[in-house]
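Table S4 entry, DNA-binding response regulator.
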Amino acid sequence: MIDVMLVDDITLLRKGLTRMIEADPDLRVSDQASNGQEAVTTLRKLEETGRPLPHVILMDVRMPVMDGISATAIISKEFPTIRTLILTTYDEDDYAFTGLHAGAYGFLLKDVSTRDLHQAIHAVADGDAVLTPRITAEIINRDRAHARRKDDEDQARQQLGRLTPREYEIAGLIAQGLSNQEIAQRLTIEVASVRRYVSRILDKTGLRDRTQIVIAWFRSGATN
């Protein structure tokens, strides 16, 4: 069972998302909050009392008291096992884009279908990032100025140079936007094996998540 926390200041939206999420028998909404500060406070109380933390958080961006970006930054630091998905109206929302740098695992548009919502929650719970093709391209475009700096390029090459050939191959597939399931199918290996490879890639490179793997890949000048 995957526990999901909803953070949005619109009550009706939380109710609608709850119905959609719990249409999947493997998902349940365990906690809700109306702003970022309330979400952080709830998580701290859960931890203090020894109660289970949610596996995934669906986080709105614009909320009173504390916005979703600030909350995501705190949560990713204090509760690194929790995966946060940013809820936004448009995937070109520049404010929401900064959520990736705050530690979010990707984006979900608020008009997401029930099927795509379920897939996204399962994906991030499994360690995948959820990025639209446009957002992946934007990550690359925004990083190009840095990629031209030799010190950044050298650092990325050093990070990827620590990988075995198989790990390097998987890093390249991650940079293409493939999920763990898709990588497993491409390489004819088990999904559990892909998870172990991804974990080793992050450990060896010191990168935080799959988004940073994508950035390092393109900074290094690597090609698929």
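Strands lie at 2-7, 27-33, 56-60, 83-88, 106-109.
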